[in-house]
Design goal:
Elements (H helix, E strand, L loop, with lengths): L1 H15 L1 H9 L3 H30 L13 E5 L15 E5 L6 H10 L4 E6 L14 E7 L8 H11 E12 L7 H16 L9 H6 L5 E8 L9 E8 L1
Parallel strand pairs: 1-2, 1-4, 2-3, 4-5
Antiparallel strand pairs: 5-7, 6-7
Helix pairs in contact: 1-6
């Protein structure tokens, strides 16, 4: 009964997204991609306040993956407006990558506010194709709230493994689908089609941990958490790191 109700409600919600689908089809949705970085930049402050302790715990051991010369070369995929910069170790050399070029304005604001880091470059690329990053050239790759919106999670993970040096680490913090028996799972599937457009391609029903577990890393440290004071639809999170 609950499954039938979920499918019916999802169909109604999907009907509401038809105008958005048409806008995307004829190219008008591109305006929202210009607006989205501003929205994301402002939401970042609230999310970081709520997740400050979690992010600090996630990145606390990142320094141990520095190269023998002491440099920590970090690639952040889906860097957005630079929400993670304050948590990175002193002297870290950061390469930023994001498919949306309109984030650059807000990214530079974050760069100026985090003088403890050295910034290399900003690449306008998607995570599935990091051709501008050489094989084995970085010590650490970071993705936070990114794998929910890429086209091909497995291809992104293959690219991450390619650019990481042997012994390098991939850090992640992602919202994921809830337990099937929960009401959160119910509403994630009902509002998923609408969230996709409002979140610039964000999918709230992905079991991302399965892709990470199957990606072929030598060592995996993964935890399932409930994000504090976050919108219930994206409260289930996974966090951790993998070693190549």
């Amino acid at each position: 009964m609950k499954t039938c109700l979920m499918r019916f409600c999802r169909l109604l919600c999907f009907a509401l997204t038809v105008p958005l689908y048409v806008m995307e089809l004829i190219g008008l949705y591109g305006f929202y991609k210009r607006l989205f970085p501003l929205l994301a930049y402002n939401i970042t402050f609230s999310y970081n306040d709520k997740m400050h302790k979690t992010k600090r715990e996630l990145f606390r051991n990142m320094g141990k993956f520095a190269s023998p010369d002491g440099t920590l070369r970090l690639l952040e995929i889906g860097c957005g407006s630079g929400a993670n910069f304050q948590f990175y170790p002193y002297g870290c050399l950061v390469v930023c990558a994001d498919p949306n070029p309109h984030f650059e304005r807000y990214l530079r604001i974050s760069m100026a506010a985090n003088e403890h880091l050295t910034f290399d470059r900003f690449l306008v690329v998607c995570g599935e194709d990091l051709e501008d990053v050489e094989d084995g050239s970085v010590d650490v790759v970071v993705c936070t709230l990114v794998l929910c919106s890429v086209r091909d999670v497995q291809q992104v993970l293959r690219e991450i493994r390619r650019v990481l040096r042997p012994g390098g680490a991939f850090y992640f913090l992602e919202h994921v689908v809830s337990e099937p028996s929960s009401w959160t799972y119910f509403f994630q599937h009902v509002f998923g089609p609408l969230w996709y457009y409002l979140g610039d391609g964000c999918m709230i029903t992905r079991a991302t941990w399965k892709d990470i577990e199957a990606a072929g890393f030598c060592e995996l440290h993964l935890n399932l958490i409930e994000a504090p004071e976050v919108t219930p639809l994206i409260r289930p999170h996974i966090m951790g790191y993998c070693i190549k």
